[in-house]
């Protein structure tokens, strides 16, 4: 097929101007024909298939079982489920923001943290609505959009949601630390410092999150490819990442350990402490309400005083607020810990786990994150009397009197 070109290679440089143009040289020396090009493309295709089969053999046995059949079945309806959750969550977070910005609610730092948490969650859902509508509903299960515009949209979606989700994680950790300090050291220097710098504490996650996500900007990029089965084919674009690069593995460790698992570990410790505080408060309340053995208290106090003695209203309000925050933290742990664990396993096991095990869980992880961002309104309404009162006065046009609102504001200001 190819002639010996050693003589041409040995020609002196001074005679290079006597050479034919490149295309004529190729036709004369190599005698390439269309059949040779087709044969070359077929060989390249066979080589690519051989590499893919080798990789499949290396990853044989990864992630097989009934659970993956269930995951793939759910992925077929993920678009409709996530769209309904996003619509509900967007409306719910807007209501949260409207209630938490009221004068009687905005006096406490914890309510301000919850307000900005609702803002971050609202923007996550607003961005996810067009993505899921096009990716899972408009396009069929076997359809793929390989245009440059959609590849850029996927890249923006990836970075935007990761930054906002990291902001939510930071605000949740700030919320937990704030509550821990308010309970364990209410009159200490740390509590006074946090009260004096509440705005900076809320602003910090918004500043740090884009910095922590910095490696992701360089790992993922839009790549142009062509179909090897066709000699002439249109360019295809998709989000590409080099699995063999050091930066790729470093990004997985940052994302799984620093952004996911470390906040989860902090929240587990703080949630345990808060639950211990609630149990202690419950035991104190049972002692104060021990009507089965009134003689125990009659020895020390008058019987009538014992029966009428109840925990201070501030303590009861304190317990409800703590229980609400514990519910928020536990829901966050249920959402974030599996994501961090999958990311850690992807960083340790690398190619095979990420290629075969991680993708089936992608939609399920999105679902958990969307549920976590949407149920805040339900939790606040069920567990906060002040939230319910403010919501009714704001949207139901009912005036419960300035005495009730003043009482709730005074209790919240002194207890939270």
UniProtKB/TrEMBL annotation:
Subcellular location, principal: membrane
Annotated InterPro entries: 7TM_GPCR_serpentine_rcpt_Srw (IPR019427), GPCR_Dmsr-1 (IPR053219), GPCR_Rhodpsn (IPR000276), GPCR_Rhodpsn_7TM (IPR017452)
Pfam families linked: 7TM_GPCR_Srw
Ranges where the G-protein coupled receptors family 1 profile domain occurs: 92-380
Family stated for the protein in its record: Belongs to the G-protein coupled receptor 1 family.
Gene: Dana\GF12439
GO cellular component: plasma membrane
Source organism of this protein record: Drosophila ananassae
Record-annotated membrane-spanning stretches: 77-101, 113-134, 154-181, 202-220, 252-279, 323-344, 364-383
Keywords: Membrane, Transmembrane, Transmembrane helix
Locations listed in the record: Membrane
Descriptive protein name: G-protein coupled receptors family 1 profile domain-containing protein
A GO molecular function held by the record: G protein-coupled peptide receptor activity
